Structures are given as C-alpha cells and as structure tokens.
Amino acid sequence: MSWPMIPVSELCEFAVDCVNKTAPTVEHETEFKMIRTTNVKGGFIDLREVRFVTEEVFNKWTRRSRPQYGDVILTREAPVGEVGRFTSNDEKVFLGQRLFHYRPDPNKLDWNFLAYALQSPQIQGKFKGMGFGATVDHVRVGDAERLPIPCPPINVQKRIGDTLSAYDDLIENNRRRIQLLEQSARLLYKEWFVHLRFPGHEHTLIINGVPESWEKKHLSQIFNTQYGFTESATNDPVGPKFLRGTDINKTSYIDWSAVPYCPDEKLDFQKYKLQIDDILVIRMADPGKVAIVETEEKAVFASYLIRLTRKPGIEIPALYLFYVLASDQYQGFISGASGGSTRKSANAKLVVDFVTLIPTASLSQLFTTKIQPMRQQIQTLLQQNANLRKARDLLLPKLMNGEMAV
Question: Which pick of 56, 240, 294, 389 has the fewest CB atoms within 10 Å?
C-alpha cells in the first residue's frame, strides 16, 4: 500500500527549532527543567536526569514554544534522529538546543502516528542521508520542517498510533513502577543507615554516631578494584555484552537489553567477565554513579568503569555495599573529590577512599532480605519491557509501510 508523502510542517500547528544556544543552568533544583538530546531516546522523553534553570531563563527560552502533552520531539544532532513522545503534563519544561519541536494538527496528523513515522526505517534512513557536518552529523532546521512523511487517512493514522502506543504506554508504566521500587529501596537504606532508625535502634547505644556493635571501615579494606577493557562497542551480537558508563549513569540497575556488544577478538574474557554481585563505578564524565550485576550474563565491562569485588573473607552483603555507594554521602564525596576542570574523573584509589558504617551481620542481612524482592521485581519489569520493545519494533515497519492492516 502506498500513502502520499507530505511535508510534516503542512500537517502540524507548528514545527519549530529550539533556541540555538545553551541556556544558563543552576546547580540547585528548581521548578523549571531543561530537556537535552540525552533525554530523548527510543520514542521516550526521560525527565529524571534534567538540568534546572531560573524562572527568568525559562520564560526567555520558551517564547517560541513550550512542549505539552501530545507533542513530538526530534533530536537534530548528537545524535541525529532520536524521537520522543511528550507524555507529561508538566508545564515547566523546555527544550535545550539541537531539539526540534512538532505539534501536530489533530485534524490532519495523529501525534502517536507522527512519533512512529519518524522512528520508521523509511524516515530514519532519510535522517541518515540528511546528516552532515565536519565533526558531528546534524539535520538542518529546514530539512526537519520539510521532511516528507507518509500520510494515510486520519482514521488509519489513529489506529496505527493507538496500536503501537499501547506497547509504549505499558513500557512507560513499567518504568514508573521501577522508579518507585528504586526510591523505596533508597529510602529504606537512608532510614536505617543514615538516620539510624533501624529495627531495635531504641535499645541500641550510639556513641559518636556509631551504634553499638557496628564499626567503621575504609572501603579499601573491603574492595579490590579493576579497570575495564578499552574497545568500541557494536550493536552486532558478535561477542559478549559490553557494559559502559552510559548504560548505568541514570539508574541503579542494568538494562541488559540495551547494552551493546564487545567485538574484539583479543579480549581476555575471563579477566573482564562480569559476575553476579560485581559492583561497577563510573570513573569518567559522571564519576561515582554505580550499578550492581544481579543476573547471570555473558558480559565484560568498559574502561570508563571500575569493578569493585569484595576481598576474600569479606562477608558483608554486596547489596548493602551497593547502597552505600549509591548513597548521597558517597555520591557527594566522589563528586567533590573528582578532578578535571572540564570533565570530572576519578581513579580506582579515589573510589575506595571512603569510610562507611558497617552494621551487624544480622542487620545487613535483614536489609538485604527486604531489598531483594524489590530488585527482583525490577529485573522482571525490565524483561517485560524488553519483550514489549521487541514486539513493537517488529510491528512498527509493517504498519508504517501498509504491509499489515489495522
């Protein structure tokens, strides 16, 4: 089936580029959030890791447009061609540079259909053909405005959009559930081991901030460290999974379905093979962010990561130690101590140069027992999302080229 190709701007209430300069941000959290290209990926817009600005900057940068529910966002550069549906009702969000903003005319173009049309192999191929630049590929504003997209009748668009968005709505709902599980686990750690309101605290003597029978330990007494392997990743499944800093810098879990592969034939697999309970700490660009290996995978880790493994004889649960490293106290320490004027970095010595409280064995084990079901539920939801993405990605091209009717 062949549908007419119509310039997308003719089907939209507006199609505009963002302000093409960097908005001045602030270090503290405010109501006003800036989306960057890194927030737009795979059909979604992630509002967890955003930059913040003042109200004055927000008002200045939104004179042209503000995203609202039902808009579609495209990355013009770094990378080219990522797409996100704006599904939030937050009115205090704006677009950073290199983002293009579409607001479909509901009488001509279904917003979900537009998002999937832009993600279709046909249109993604056009983006790759448009991309140019001496150092970084990018799509020109005019090309983003005039981009021709397939345009079936509006009722067909809605059926296609509704069919595909059903998968993404489930994925997004699972992501929210994962976020709540993460928050619950972190709050439990903070309640017990930062505020010291652990079970039995009423009857425990605390001297100089250390509960009776607890001890302070330097992380270098607990962990061995190891740098990862230097190689470029590939999406072709030609080797083991290749865990990188970008795969863990926004979450406390590892979504293995999104991790690429390591193609190098010279790789010493046994040396870099990841095992359950290994803890990985980012050392470059975003030092201190941490993840833990919770499932059996054929995987190695990249050079921007440092692996922490418990020394022989250390029986402290790995999951407890993971939450020590994920805590605000440790993250603040690494952030403040990392070197670099433009790009922060940390070395293996620094990531274990931290003193932490070690509770009694029974209490750390009780904590692990309570946290483990939450972590297992996260893994279940991640697998569900991987299955949903796979089904959606198989269906999308068939619906978009008319091969399958709805």
Answer: 56
| Domains present along the chain, CATH in parentheses | 5-151 (3.90.220.20), 174-381 (3.90.220.20)
Q: Is 325 helix (H, G, I), strand (E, B) or coil?
A: helix
Chain CA centroid to CA 21, Å? 24
283 sits in the region (left: phi over 0; alpha: psi -120 to 50; else beta) called alpha
* Helices and strands counted in the chain (H then E): 11, 21
Handedness of CA 368, 369, 370, 371 (dihedral sign): positive
- Name residues whose C-beta falls within 8 Å of residue 225's C-beta, 6 or more positions apart in sequence: 306, 307, 308, 348, 351, 352
Render pLDDT for 253-295 as a digit per residue (tens, 0 to 9). Answer: 899 999 999 987 788 999 999 999 999 999 987 888 999 999 9
Give pLDDT < 50 ranges for the chain.
Answer: 134-135
Residue 16 has which token pair?
């505009």
Give the containing element (helix H, strand E) for 100.
Answer: strand 99-104
| Three-class secondary structure of residue 308 per DSSP | strand
* Burial category of 204 from C-beta neighbours within 10 Å (exposed 0-12, middle 13-18, buried 19 and up): middle
Q: What is the pLDDT of residues 125-164, one digit of tens each?
A: 888 776 555 445 788 999 999 999 999 999 999 999 999 9
